[in-house]
Amino acid sequence: MAVCRGRRLLWHGRCWYSQTESAVVPPPSPAEPLYPPVVASFTAKSKAAQRRRLEHFKQRVHAAASIEEKLRLYGQLQRPKYTVYPQTFALNADRWYQSFTKTVFVPGLPPRAAPAAAKSPGAVTPEAAKAPESAGPQAAKAAGPGAAPYLDMGQLRSLACDALLQESFYQNKKRPALYRDQEHTPGPFLTQLVSTLAAFLCSRNPLLAASSLDLNPEVNYYWHHGEEVVVHGHRKGRVDPVRFQIDDKPHLQLRVPKQLPEFVPLESNLGDVPVIEHKPSKLPLFKKQYENKVFIGSKTADPCCYGHTQFHLIPDKLKRERFVRANLEDQIEVVYRANGIASLFAWTAAQAMYQG
Prior knowledge:
Elements: H1 47-62, H2 67-74, E1 81-84, H3 93-101, H4 126-129, H5 136-142, H6 153-170, H7 181-184, H8 186-200, H9 206-209, E2 212-215, E3 219-229, E4 239-248, E5 252-256, E6 287-288, E7 306-311, H10 320-325, H11 332-354
Helix pairs in contact: 1-2, 3-11, 6-8
């Protein structure tokens, strides 16, 4: 009986099949597409087209060479927007403003940071700091070289009294016109008081020596928050961002060339932001269409591009007596909170935009 024997496939100088490892073949390079990619139209009403327009807009803003060009592109498209007034007569406006700006309101003053001099060996103890003002010069002489210079509160009180007497007693002013009381005495008094105290405190705070004081500046900020459906016009049915604009006019503001340290870390959880589902027109807020502006009170080339302090004067139409006569005592503090939330948000957000 014949037996079939397999022939060995091994020749001299050659190896077949499993005798050697297969050579690694490099993957073929992807061929260039013959046609351009299929993308959504710029003018379509679809969500893909809206995403493409948004991505193209972000690329243009990021590719801008200067801050001025970025701000110009950011506010180039003008649409109807809600105008937010920091000093408003609307009821419970502070909760609405917190929702628009994503701001948490924490009552009370921020915690006082421990000065660096308190950690030094020559620092004064808290018991010594509570000494009467008459012992001020002696305490200043006894303090170590690392302690901060003594602040004479009596001298500050004297400067404030001089400014008040100058505006209310020494000058022979006539009776103010209707709703012009702020321009008669409080406005000039605050201007003189702030400029005098800032000049006096320059020796204790060198940052004030390089600061810039603005009188009746203009602060603007434009931003988006949420989405809405266009109801009227040729763009009916499209989904647009809800646009807001704050046009603030503080009485005075101090700008410094160095950023101030933060009171609390950004990662800290201070509370929940109130969420209001109603349209801003229920506050009421009204829509206008005009220039989208981001401005901190100075141009981008100004070295003093960081905010220090703002001073506002409440108009006569929002005085405390008016709310008391209308039985709206609970709305007195609401006006102050709404003014602080809107003004601080507009100023700090515009400063962040100036940084790129």
